Amino acid sequence: MFFKKKPKPPVKKVTKKWEQWEPTIDLSNIDKKKTVELKQKVEIKTEKMPVWTYSKDFLNEFNKLTRTHRPFDVWRDFVIMFACAISNPLDKFHYKDREERYLSIIHKYSKDEQMIFPKLAAYTTMALDANPEQDFLGKMFMDLGLGNNSAGQFFTPYSVCQLMADVVTSDLDNNLQDKLEKQGYISLADECCGAGATLIAAINTIKRKMEKAMPSMNFQRHLLVVGQDIDETVALMCYIQISLLGVAGYIKVGNSITDPMTTDDDKSKYWYTPMYFSNIWVIRRF
């Protein structure tokens, strides 16, 4: 006895929700004038935030942390953690100590407070990306009233630093190419770097001179920055900013008079920028 094989039931097409959706606007009937106006509105919304808003937003977020913590303690913790976050992905020699230090600091804050620190780092990064010609952290430090007048701790206005940079680098107008051919790079040093305003101004000045002399040159391959400061907090402010500017170099925490840089130094006091670990600078160190 033979049985006929039952035919397979027809497969029902399941219409998914997104297949049921239909545009509520018929594109063929759109007024071109209104389309242009709509496009302009969208373009306005997608523009970058004005530079000044980064400062405003930074201060607003920072002040949320000062309701339960001392302002200077918050600032110091922010700077140390941000510096550790920049250093640890590449500087494995100091990774363990700095990671432990980072964790010991962040655990002092609640979960909600912890979420504010990445915002502060983001505003700093975006501010320097939008306008590299500034000492952003130095300005925020002074705007928050954290300067120590009794210790003579105040930051030089950036406009003054620009003038100083123009004077100090004036010799490069005539012999920039000769120096690069002999050494391969230009070096900058500041033995009392503070938050880095003078170095930042000099970096931007030399960058412009290099681009003018050799438009195709990548200044990041031909500029080395070295700084030192006795105050760890401001030294790390400098480290953060030159790192975000994409410059190769390092900052030492210590007294440049009683503890100057030497070849047999304690390397735990040194903070190397990410660019310093790029291939060209690794080769130059050996």
Account of the 3D structure:
With 286 residues, this protein is α/β, with parallel strands linked by helices. The chain has one domain. The protein is 52% helix and 7% strand. It has 13 helices and four strands. The protein has helices at residues 17-20, 32-45, 51-65, 71-87, 95-106, 111-114, 116-130, 136-143, 158-168, 172-183, 197-213, 232-244, 279-284, and strands at residues 186-190, 223-229, 248-253, 270-272. Helix 12 (232-244) links the parallel strand 2 (223-229) and strand 3. The protein is globular. It starts with 16 loop residues before the first helix and ends with a helix.
List the helices and strands and how they pair.
Layout lengths: L16 H4 L11 H14 L5 H15 L5 H17 L7 H12 L4 H4 L1 H15 L5 H8 L14 H11 L3 H12 L2 E5 L6 H17 L9 E7 L2 H13 L3 E6 L16 E3 L6 H6 L2
Parallel strand pairs: 1-2, 2-3
Antiparallel strand pairs: 3-4
Helix pairs in contact: 3-7, 4-5, 4-12, 9-11, 10-11
